[in-house]
Amino acid sequence: MTAPELTTEQRQANLEKAMKIRKERSEIRAKISNGIYTAAIVVQRALEGEQAYAGMRVKQLINAMPGYGFKRTQALMKELHIAENKRVGGLGSVQAANLIMKLDGVEQ
Fold first, then answer.
1. 8 Å CB contact between 103 and 67
2. How far apart, in whole angstroms, are the C-alpha atoms of residue 69 and residue 86?
3. By the 8 A CB rule, do 62 and 56 touch?
4. What is the spatial distance between Cα 49 and Cα 43, in angstroms, rounded to a whole number?
5. If you ran DSSP here, which 8-state letter would residue 57 be given?
6. pLDDT one-digit tens code per residue, 27-86
């Protein structure tokens, strides 16, 4: 099965859409770093189906939190049994609740 042939206009539209999503994710990470967004907000919006939130990798979410670097992020993901490539929108209900509790200190 091969990829469908896209016209130049379709390809350009897809590139613009991808760039828009990347920019939104960058803004989300900045808001997390600045304390404007909590993990609960990001997970809730992902579960509501917002593409920029749902498509963000969990390790990017954790790493954006103040005080979390590479090692601490890896340790938390291992502790919570979250796969390295898991996206926020793909978290199970227990994983999401545990992640929020660890990052925000709030039970869901």
1. no
2. 18
3. no
4. 10
5. B
6. 999 999 999 999 999 999 999 999 999 999 999 999 999 999 999 999 999 999 999 999
